[in-house]
Design brief:
homodimer, 328 residues, alpha+beta, Metallo-beta-lactamase, Chain A, seven-stranded mixed β-sheet, 27% helix, globular
Chain lengths: 328, 328
């Protein structure tokens, strides 16, 4: 390179160069420093599955000190090491929330909801990102709930307690509805987390029970969207296959919580799994299927845009996030 | 789960449930199916390095049949297998382009430019995404070019050939300027690709040579942004360290082309490397440093938002993309 430089000095082009270097600085009008913008991009991502238009929508994420027992069956240090290996802040864990909208051409379908606006400074962003994505909440025809945990259902309500999707039919998995709405089950809730979940299900859904249709596994919850038994996380926890033409995507819901811990280590039990052994078996079955068919997977707790492919990797799996396409 | 369901049937809560199921379908006003939106999200991403506000901005990506000799020193089948393993379309390769804007508080600095609007249906998106990010092209104070390849410099021009950043000083690495502006070097161009590069450099920069300042490695090209020798890809190819307070990010420019091939396999020679052995040595040195300090890296050819951490992995490296934060 030094050689190139020396040679260039004796050429005509280099003479032009030298002259250019010798020019006085260009005078420019003095301008004030540009202030920072201070705002993130709207966090939605559009893609297609066959003829269907899908929009992954971020509700935000929660970064919290990793709770004791977050992973039930490994020491906290080991779980923290996995989080730190994924570049999460030391001692903390980040859990993102990503509902998905499917426009089948016939129906506008929302799968899971996130939280109502204002739930926390870093969550409850779904409605704002939905609007930024050019989708009117009033146009949603069907809200499909994968299961009845708060981060999946609370967004059916506005911040004021109204209906966030006033024209939508709400569909809940029949086994989850039966489980969470059972007073007998509630009376047996073993800890504060479970008590909170039972109370929350009632608070959000009881007075609109008439608007909630129960669905069964194997049924289409909307055209081209089939409910798949993914139980274990909760009794009625459901994944979905979205199919259009020969294209197919899997919506995994909470087959894993954050993939950095639980897809890498499918035998780890997240605190939220009601039947951890069944959840683990579901996980392996689901990912073995997804890896074999090289299926695109949407993961509610994957980092936005929450899409990727899963591959076997040693005793666990790895997630390969999709490459963002800037043109739809 | 069947057990839960059976139990629930005999409880009061389940009676409510059954009643709800028995209700007639809710009547809703008939609405036309919602048309698809058909538009991608604006593709920018905001983050902070110390006090600096950074914006990663997609210019788009090009997906093309993988050219013969794209990887010079491995069989085409092997290179194609690596692309396919990264879920690129069969037989093809996708190359994204991602400039970055740094607002240091004193100066608004653009590092590399992408292409002018309209260059192709999937590139030339920089200006639109810059505007979507709330940044005025006229407010850019400094355009720093990492090297003089078309995807890094052509965007200094508008589609009509004017100046895309009319108030900006343009800074080019002195060794690259000397190399590409040398008529002697141009006369020795060994193939059409190189001939095209020499012609393009002149077309884009010759008549604005007076606006172009040459910089040397080790210098600050803007407050807190230091030019680092990353030669090999081109004689003057430059990476950057962006430092604010104790925070530091590396802008790798083209230390690798697409990471799926060349970061995984640092000894592979991409067709665009002028001195492939030097480029390879630079690559290893750069990533060993980045891995050791767990540095955040911005990569011009990483998938948007083009940020990640690099780790040693066997004989090569792996890229761990950052987790998107929906709140700035």
């Amino acid at each position: 390179m030094t050689e190139f430089t020396r040679r260039a000095v004796v050429t005509g082009a280099a003479a032009v160069t030298a002259a250019a270097i010798a020019q006085p600085p260009i005078s420019r009008p003095a301008r004030a420093a540009t202030p920072p913008v201070g705002k993130q991009a709207p966090s939605f991502y559009r893609h297609k599955v066959g003829d269907y238009e899908l929009t992954q929508i971020s509700d935000g994420a929660r970064t919290i000190p990793m709770p004791e027992g977050f992973v039930r069956n490994v020491p906290r240090e080991q779980a923290l090491a996995a989080a730190e290996a994924a570049y999460m802040p030391k001692g903390q864990v980040t859990i993102p929330f990503n509902p998905v909208v499917v426009n089948t051409g016939l129906k506008l379908v929302l799968i899971d909801t996130g939280f109502p606006p204002g739930t926390s400074p870093t969550t409850g962003l779904f409605q704002a990102n939905l609007a930024a994505a050019g989708i009117d909440a009033k146009a949603i025809d069907i809200v499909v709930l994968s299961h009845l945990h708060p981060d999946h259902i609370n967004g059916v309500r506005t911040a004021e307690g109204g209906l966030a999707f006033p024209n939508a039919e709400i569909k809940a998995p029949a086994p989850d509805w039966a489980f969470w709405m059972s007073d007998e089950n509630m009376s047996k809730a073993a800890n504060d987390m479970m008590k909170g979940y039972f109370a929350n299900t009632r608070k959000v859904l009881s007075d609109i029970a008439g608007k909630v249709t129960r669905y069964e596994w194997g049924q289409e919850v909307a055209p081209g969207i089939t409910a798949l038994d993914a139980s274990g996380h909760t009794p009625g926890h459901t994944a979905f296959a979205v199919a259009s033409g020969s294209a197919r995507m899997l919506v995994q819901s909470d087959v894993t919580n954050i993939p950095e811990l639980f897809l890498r280590n499918p035998d780890w039990h997240v605190a939220f799994d009601i039947d951890p052994n069944k959840a683990m078996a579901t996980r392996r079955k689901f990912y073995d299927m997804a890896a074999a068919e090289k299926a695109l997977i949407a993961g509610f707790h994957f980092a936005f845009p929450s899409l990727g492919h899963v591959e076997k990797d040693g005793a666990g799996y790895r997630l390969v996030p999709i490459a963002w396409k800037a043109v739809f």
